[in-house]
């Protein structure tokens, strides 16, 4: 930013910065605010005249530390700091988004860095920086950021840089700038529960054999992600409060102190993993990520394989089994499997048998093909309302997960080899 625009912005901001706390009841109607809003409209192309900009500018002033909006003097910025923050927000061409995901129930994992994702622990100060606790305090003064409790968990963080909207108001209230002449009920059939870059990172993590690292019957997963918190450096986007550590899973515990007294406390619940998990997860690095990205760019991954594998991990019960089975179908199924037209007379087996055969050949494991056929029969009984004897076993749920993961990993390997140059039809018809 130039010295000239900094000086001009400081001069325009000074009347607002001089307002004593707690400020007027309606700051946006004050003469100082109206004058500064007009200054912004005249000085920055990103400023607009819409309602969205009015909300965005008010949030930007709070985020920049306008003294009269602060509950405590320590949260306020100097005039120069405020001016620099406002200018940077207006002139930004990109926005950094950091998605912060608690790995609830996770055992001790090795630090990992792959793509734009990181898995690690953070101490109290690091968490305060990661969550931008200073900015949160300006918006939510009554909420305590419980860093010491949150620091007892491990975290998946994913960063992305995206283009900033051309208008500041659109960054504050994007829905106001969308077309109203559209189908508001329309949706993307493969939109997941997580932002795209988080789903990408989860897909990578889910290729590890979590189901082989513990023997719990309740589930195969080594962690859950109960929420995702977004931190953005966009001053026009209002932050959201951080969910409390109480939303994560704790258990009662006790220890004997040096006086022989039992001291009770709570600690995070962890699903214990075999020691082999450490060495395998430690190999989840940029080279491993490059193989996944390379595979994803080939025709072998042009179907929504990732969507269903990630969806399965976020589902429960039969929905999880169904999602894993659908992931296999997305990986190895062709439309031609459901039509005999055009096939040679000697190749008239049904779609299910064809998929089972591909599973067996791809994995080099005849039993895997039979497992797929058995699970497909279970899936069909569920879908078509046929009787299912008793409950679905935990063994079957884990088997569906293991089979889906093995298929996807094998497909990644195939895509990184000579098969990556084949069309999807060529590759799958070659599994015969």
Walkthrough of the structure:
There is one protein chain. This protein is of the alpha+beta class. It folds into three domains: 3-91; 94-168 and 196-268, no CATH class; 297-429, no CATH class. It contains 17 helices and seven strands. It has helices spanning 3-17, 31-43, 51-63, 79-91, 124-130, 133-139, 147-150, 168-172, 196-206, 276-282, 286-296, 305-313, 317-332, 351-363, 366-383, 394-415, 424-429; strands at residues 94-102, 112-114, 117-121, 154-163, 229-232, 250-256, 262-268. Strands 2-3-4-1-5 form a five-stranded antiparallel β-sheet. Helix 1 crosses helix 4, helix 12 packs antiparallel against helix 13 (317-332) and helix 15 packs across helix 16 (394-415). The N and C termini lie far apart (64 Å). 32% of the residues are buried.
SSE string, helices as H and strands as E: HHHHEEEHHHEHHEEEHHHHHHHH
Q: What is the terminal separation in angstroms?
A: 64 Å
Low-confidence runs of at least 5 consecutive residues: none
Radius of gyration: 27 Å
Total number of domains: 3
Task: Give the fraction of residues assigned to helices.
Answer: 40-55%
The tally of strands reads: 7
Beta fraction: 5-15%
Summarize it.
This protein is an alpha+beta fold and 432 residues long.
Which key phrases capture this entry?
alpha+beta; 3 domains; two-stranded antiparallel ribbon
